[in-house]
Design goal:
- There is one protein chain.
- Helix content is 67%, strand content 0%.
- By secondary structure, it is an all-alpha fold.
- The chain has three domains: 30-237, no CATH class; 248-410, no CATH class; 413-485, no CATH class.
- Helix 1 (35-51) runs antiparallel to helix 9, helix 4 packs antiparallel against helix 16 and helix 14 (322-357) packs antiparallel against helix 15.
- The longest helix has 36 residues, at 322-357.
- Keywords: Membrane, Transmembrane, Transmembrane helix.
- The chain crosses the membrane at residues 83-100, 105-122, 128-146, 167-188, 208-228, 249-274, 294-314, 326-347, 367-385.
- This is DUF4173 domain-containing protein.
């Protein structure tokens, strides 16, 4: 008699090096990649190969992101939910910053944020654990993705289906015919040549390996995104549970002591927190620089610790008890309100610093971060009132994404240049060496400076040509027009350095 066969236990080869529980990510050996998904992923990779230069801030980032989004959300089932569509729109809006702003550091932040928001749109996430693991989900799919694509390719070769070899052959023949006849038409008519050059992507063979690697990465990422849409993991299942509620005194005593500590600090430090110019000038060894930086790092540490305290305390409160709910609201609300005082003081300190020495990227970024952290505390207060933190992780992510878009709309480099130009008009002091390191976003404001300061400030800003439409950037185009109308002269003058830097 033959013994019954049993399914072999799951091994590392099922998902690479990861062992997932069934409630987190079920094993997948049957699903296969649709034809449309494979074609769209290859198309996204080809598009990235032709137009995307990682080192050039341009509309190509948005176009590549849109191709990946179409692959993931338009070629596989189920249909995206309204919430997913909103998240995708937010991710593409963050990529669109690359078409509008010229500051590479700002675009880099937006690209990273777009990756996070897009990953949450693919995988979902309602807990801190789910949102934290969502951005790494694409890197966890290689073994599953290979099987998914192989099964899809096998189906393409059955019956009258389109075979991959045929697709490659037709693509190569089409490109060769367009190149041959296009070159003949270009040589026959200069006007058509200009039109042809502006429409057809220019493949810069100076870096073919790099472009091919970028294209392969985008194609794989697009296919992996489609797979995650089809078979998403449930990382929220890994989130720690709330556990058994604690007795009231077990969490109330630590919170009460923490509230007393915060209240004592705020009461004693009122003169320090809001003393302003007088406190800085009257304290030996204290400068605007360390006065502002010390407040910021205090704020950052207090924010993280308070967030952890509120998140843990809310989980340990017995919500079925009216007395526990009232006590928790009182203690946690007081803690958040006292922390908001620290937020206000840090913002005040940075304002004094900027008024004295002008704006820089670091100072403006610190100010924006402080204001956003203040909003996080307001969300914490709302969570305490509702005695629920389930909505808090997504609310924090939405506020961060919206805040970054608002920061991009402010145009940081342009704003910094404007404030420094106004300060020069009032005081005659300017740090030309720093302004020369700004991006093309600063050109309209720096154009207001008188000569020779204007030419010295503009001489260090790189304004490159845009040979093709997919290299378009609104900030760079605007700067080109300004400098074509009034070219910057050679800079042979020296200017003082801002002592605040």
């Amino acid at each position: 008699m033959t013994a019954p066969t049993t399914r072999p236990p799951k091994t590392a080869s099922d998902d690479g090096l990861w062992h997932w529980r069934r409630d987190v990510w079920r094993r997948d050996r049957t699903s296969l990649a649709p034809r449309a998904t494979l074609a769209a992923a290859l198309g996204a990779g080809a598009l990235a190969t032709l137009i995307l230069q990682v080192s050039v801030v341009s509309i190509a980032y948005l176009l590549t992101g849109a191709a990946v989004a179409v692959t993931a959300f338009a070629t596989v089932r189920p249909r995206p939910t309204p919430l997913q569509l909103v998240a995708v729109a937010g991710a593409l809006a963050l990529l669109a910053v690359a078409a509008v702003r010229g500051a590479e550091w700002l675009v880099a932040l937006c690209v990273v944020a777009s990756w996070v928001v897009g990953s949450v749109a693919l995988v979902g996430g309602r807990t801190w654990t789910g949102i934290t693991l969502a951005p790494v989900a694409l890197g966890l799919t290689p073994v599953r993705l290979v099987g998914w694509v192989q099964r899809g390719r096998a189906r393409l070769g059955v019956g009258r289906g389109v075979k991959p070899g045929r697709v490659i052959a037709v693509t190569a023949i089409s490109v060769a015919l367009v190149a041959l006849f296009g070159s003949l038409f270009v040589s026959a008519d200069p006007e058509f040549g200009r039109l042809f050059d502006s429409v057809v992507p220019e493949v810069r063979v100076s870096n073919p390996v790099g472009r091919l690697l970028v294209g392969c990465f985008v194609a794989v990422a697009a296919a992996a995104a489609a797979y995650l849409r089809r078979r998403p993991p449930t990382f929220d299942a890994l989130a720690p549970g709330s556990g058994r509620p604690l007795a009231r005194w077990e969490w109330a005593v630590p919170l009460a002591l923490l509230d007393a500590l915060f209240a004592g600090f705020v009461a004693v430090q009122v003169r320090v927190l809001f003393g302003g110019d007088r406190h800085v000038r009257d304290t030996a060894g204290l400068t605007y620089a360390n006065y502002a930086r010390q407040g910021f790092w205090q704020l950052a540490a207090v924010t993280v610790l308070t967030l952890l305290v509120v998140a843990v305390a809310v989980r340990k409160v017995d919500r079925s008890s009216v007395g526990d709910r009232v006590t928790a609201r009182l203690l946690l609300g007081t803690l958040c309100l006292l922390t908001l005082v620290v937020v206000a003081s840090a913002v005040h300190r940075m304002a004094l610093y900027e008024n004295e020495f002008g704006f820089t990227r670091l100072r403006l970024g610190v100010m924006a971060a402080e204001l956003w952290l203040g909003l996080v505390f307001v969300l914490l207060i709302a969570a305490g009132i509702r005695m629920s933190v389930r909505w808090l992780p997504r609310a924090v992510l939405v506020s961060a994404s919206a805040g970054l878009l608002g920061f991009a709309a402010l145009n940081p480099d342009g704003y910094i240049a404007e404030r420094n130009v106004d300060r020069y008009a009032d005081t005659g002091e300017i740090d030309v060496g720093y302004l020369r390191g700004l991006s093309t976003d600063a050109v309209p404001a720096l154009d207001r400076l008188p000569e020779p300061v204007r030419s010295c400030a503009l001489s260090g800003i790189d304004v490159r040509d845009e040979p093709a439409w997919f290299d378009y950037n609104a900030s760079r185009t605007r700067a080109q027009h300004i400098l074509q109308a009034r070219p910057a002269e050679p800079c042979n003058h020296g200017f003082g350095i801002d002592p605040g830097n």
